[in-house]
Specification:
- It is a multi-pass membrane protein.
- It comes from Streptomyces niveus (Streptomyces spheroides).
- Keywords: Cell membrane, Membrane, Transferase, Transmembrane, Transmembrane helix.
- Its main location: membrane.
- It is found in: Cell membrane.
- It is globular and about 60 Å long.
- The protein has one domain.
- It has about 500 residues and is mainly α.
- It is built from 23 helices and no strands.
- The longest helix is centred in the first third of the chain and has 30 residues.
């Protein structure tokens, strides 16, 4: 069995400028004066990398709000087709009235009229929606109140976006500029205010930051809260278990698991006890939901002309997800070098989305922070983002086509199927390059300067105690090794070189 002695990984590495490592970043920097100079010192300005990332995230979020202005001013209130042709649809104003917030109903406790008897969102998201309704004026027309409700939610979601950007910038201590991938992501600006997903994403990003700082209890508490806002964050416990098993850090995993269970129960238990029917609505709705937009299941039903039974789709989705997780487990335990936590986190969340019976346009928000940590390369990130932007436009043009009556203005079914395929392939492409980095760790840009796993916390620098197959034992990192790798990656000559 390999030794459990930790690898010595220096923590005082300099900040990595992306313009020195990435050709796309270097080319893009020409818009603001070109790549950073060799002798530049980051301490000469108050605009630290984290502050710049936060400001850029605010700017992009504001641009996304501007993109929604046609709907804010009139399209949300003048029929369905207009909000689709302007690609500015949002659930937020419609659910203000449709889920009883305009009437002062209490989520999970008060029944709604119509088929949807209770709010179909997890408890913490329901609380977020309710708090936003408290700050919405109670007088004026319903249109004005819906506008204000969206604006209040947008302000709260902007705070979430800034938290995400700051947490991603600080997770990799020496690579804060990688968070610009997230801050400048066009899909973030376009989808941020469609729904309330950014709440769960912010809690997950904060949890990843806590794990990178070696605080498993705080990580677990935040992941439990994120799971109380959206189901997918709990999936990160699977890759973490595999990595902790391989590194012999199961105690830390147990602490994280305990924190997750505690915080999730703390939020959910009161509603479970006093409003059980309202509480379980989210879970029954997820099970009973038909095949919906963005999934390959929808392509199958549209191409064959046959509807699929919900139970059948649920079963096959589960089977495919289990197979994907088995593959990720084999990758985690048999890779030549232990994968980074962010890499496996991205893969498991992507697998969940790809096999799900719905792939809504805002689900891309789940992946953007993980992608920035797992594969901080501008070329691959932008290819994926281009696919997501095309899908964002495709789904609204398709809905415009289906709601425009005989005029048929928009994208027909075949075109929408192509848009679905494009964004599925874009996600698969990013998964493929992440898997390649795991199998060929020497190509992993994050590790070029001698890093092991900057987002790995207690896993960073730990030796393996359990591997499968002929997985190679990680080499020890010394100050000389890190210094030499930095010279190569920064374009510097070693002493004595001509």
């Amino acid at each position: 069995m390999p030794s459990t002695e930790d690898i010595a990984v220096p923590k005082d590495r300099p900040v990595v400028p992306p313009t020195r490592r990435d050709r796309i970043a270097a080319a893009g920097s020409e818009l603001i004066g070109g790549p950073i100079g060799r002798w530049a010192w980051y301490g000469t300005s108050r605009l630290t990398p984290v502050r710049v990332v936060a400001l850029v995230a605010i700017g992009m979020f504001a641009l996304g709000m501007v993109q929604k202005m046609p709907c804010y001013e009139w399209a949300w209130f003048r029929g369905a087709s207009s909000q689709y042709t302007h690609a500015c649809y949002s659930d937020i104003p419609h659910l203000f009235l449709g889920r009883g917030f305009a009437d002062g109903l209490v989520p999970y406790f008060d029944q709604l009229n119509g088929d949807m008897q209770y709010l179909e969102y997890p408890v913490l998201t329901g609380l977020f929606m309710e708090v936003a309704s408290w700050f919405t004026p109670g007088d004026g027309s319903i249109q004005h109140r819906e506008q204000m409700y969206w604006m209040v939610n947008a302000g709260m979601l902007m705070i979430c976006a800034v938290i995400i950007a700051v947490c991603v910038a600080r997770t990799h201590r020496h690579r804060p500029w990688d968070a610009l991938l997230l801050a400048l992501a066009p899909a973030l600006a376009l989808t941020a205010t469609i729904n309330w997903d950014l709440l769960a994403v912010a809690l997950l990003a904060a949890g990843m930051l806590m794990w990178s700082r070696g605080r498993p209890l705080a990580f677990g508490i935040l992941i439990g809260l994120a799971t109380a806002a959206k189901l997918y964050p709990v999936l990160l416990l699977g890759p973490l278990l595999l990595l902790c098993w391989r590194a012999g850090r199961l105690r830390e995993f147990g602490v994280a698991l305990g924190g997750t269970a505690f915080s999730w129960l703390l939020v959910n238990l009161p509603v479970m006890l006093f409003a059980p029917e309202g509480w379980k609505k989210f879970y029954t709705f997820s099970q009973e939901r038909q095949v919906d937009f963005g999934s390959f299941w929808l392509i199958i039903t549209q191409r064959t002309g046959r509807s699929l039974e919900v139970d059948t789709v649920n079963t096959w989705s589960m089977v495919l997800m289990v197979l994907a997780c088995a593959g990720i487990a084999a990758l985690a335990l048999a890779a030549p070098r232990r994968p980074r936590f962010a890499q496996l986190a991205f893969l498991v969340v992507a697998a969940f989305i790809l096999t799900n019976k719905v792939y809504s346009p805002q689900y891309v928000l789940w992946l953007i922070p993980l992608a920035a940590l797992a594969r901080p390369r501008w070329r691959d990130f932008l290819i994926w983002q281009a696919c997501e932007v095309m899908y964002f436009l495709g789904i609204w043009m398709y809905l415009a086509y289906t709601t425009s009556g005989d005029a048929h203005k928009g994208l027909p079914t075949e075109g929408y199927q192509l848009a679905i395929a494009l964004h599925l392939l874009g996600t698969l492409y990013l998964c493929a390059v992440v898997v390649r980095d795991v199998l060929l760790p020497e190509r992993d840009g994050v590790r070029r300067d001698g890093s092991d796993d900057p987002s790995g916390g207690v896993l960073d620098g730990a030796r393996d105690v359990f591997v499968l197959g002929r997985a190679a034992r990680p080499r020890a990192y010394t100050a000389h090794t890190v210094e030499a790798s930095q010279r190569v990656s920064w374009g510097m000559r070693p002493p004595g070189a001509v």
